[in-house]
TrEMBL record:
Belongs to the cation transport ATPase (P-type) (TC 3.A.3) family. Type IIA subfamily. The lineage of its organism: Eukaryota, Metazoa, Chordata, Craniata, Vertebrata. This is P-type Ca(2+) transporter. GO terms for cellular component: endomembrane system; membrane. The gene is atp2a1_8. Keywords: ATP-binding, Magnesium, Membrane, Nucleotide-binding, Phosphoprotein, Translocase, Transmembrane, Transmembrane helix. It comes from Liparis tanakae (Tanaka's snailfish). GO terms for molecular function: ATP binding; ATP hydrolysis activity; P-type calcium transporter activity.
Amino acid sequence: MISPASPTVGDKVPADIRIVCIKSTTLRVDQSILTGESVSVIKHTDAVPDMRAVNQDKKNMLFSGTNISSGKAIGIAVSTGVATEIGKIRDQMAATEQEKTPLQAKMDEFGEQLSKVISLICVAVWAINIGHFNDPVHGGSWIRGAVYYFKIAVALAVAAIPEGLPAVITTCLALGTRRMAKKNAIVRSLPSVETLGCTSVICSDKTGTLTTNQMCVTKMFIIKSADGENVNLDAFDISGSKYTPEGEVSQGGSKINCSGYDGLVELATICALCNDSSLDYNEVKT
């Protein structure tokens, strides 16, 4: 069944869509979530001759989960759900077996060695006391003596197992996570703290991996005065982050009234007229 779709600027693409017609001058798509490209990609309707082309080269396709940066298009949905490119990545991640960290591997090795040593000691303790199986204290019964010393060997094995070791290791990792949280570093997996303990250099990826991938204005400049080639600028600081409508405009650390500056009013007017984006804000939603 053919399903037509008409994504426009600001929309998140709901499926893998083959572009049929572009209803704007250009169509730009932010597909960093899929391909890792930090800049938006220009799309077109021309066919891609290479059937083995990777997703980055499929300029006539809109992929599920990506965002329309500018423009409007009409297309046909060719894949939905887990059949999309982003769905295939999700299936591959779900099928990937989680590898053990060095700490987990060492703990498994320690557990195996400890079990073997304890087993040998228990057998040795039981074998050493074979001559006491017929002692009068056991009623002269060899079987009762064997069972008695077997219980002693089992009790020795239970006492030798460090039952508090997992709790101690978890506590140490939790303390490491707490220290990193104070440095504004959030750890999703406790075992990763052990790996970071031997890390000296961290090479971070591009925007969107360690950040929110939402660029925001932090400074504005307007012309204060101009005399020939000499131009004086007024600089303003803008607080707030991401796309939340929160923040203030200040100059020299003091909050200002933007309506008192003609340059700021004109700059805001230009920003409002030269884009077709919209911001949906719900004051009740937390």
